[in-house]
Design brief:
Helix content is about 20%, strand content about 30%. It is an alpha+beta fold and about 130 residues long. The chain has one domain (about 5-115). Helix 1 crosses helix 2 (about 35-50).
């Protein structure tokens, strides 16, 4: 499934059933997780690769759902995802990304990042996209 599709699937699911945390991915062959957790992990990895293509994913979890500023941004559904990763220098970093859905479109917004290297702004989720885009 593509990144846009994963974002839609995540935001459209019942918030009470959202995975509380993705599992560490250092040895994925030995990790048994539900399909929902796998999809969330794939989504978090995809978001990280969009903004920091040379980074190594460690773990991610949903820290706020819905986002407290959801009404201000006039979105229908949202979640804040915390992603911990290893940067290009090998240092441990974390980023906070809001995933938002509005009128059949989805986008992300980085609201915090500890990496010294700049974000890659060509991420496909940086602008509003529909599932069929």
């Amino acid at each position: 499934m593509d990144l846009i599709g994963l974002a839609f699937a995540f935001l459209m699911q019942n918030p009470e059933k959202a995975p509380p945390a993705a599992l560490y991915a250092s040895n994925p062959s030995q990790v048994y997780v539900s399909n929902r957790q796998k999809s969330f992990t794939d989504l978090a990895r995809g978001i990280l690769q969009c903004y920091h293509p040379k980074s190594k994913f460690e773990v991610a979890d949903v820290i706020e759902r819905p986002w407290r500023r959801q009404k201000e941004f006039q979105v229908d559904n949202s979640a804040v995802i915390h992603i911990r990763y290893q940067g290009m220098t090998g240092a441990s970093n974390k980023m906070f990304v809001v995933l938002m859905n509005r009128k059949g479109q989805v986008r992300s917004e980085v609201i915090g990042d500890t990496a010294a290297d700049p974000l890659a702004r060509e991420c496909e989720l940086e602008d509003w996209k529909s599932k069929t885009s």
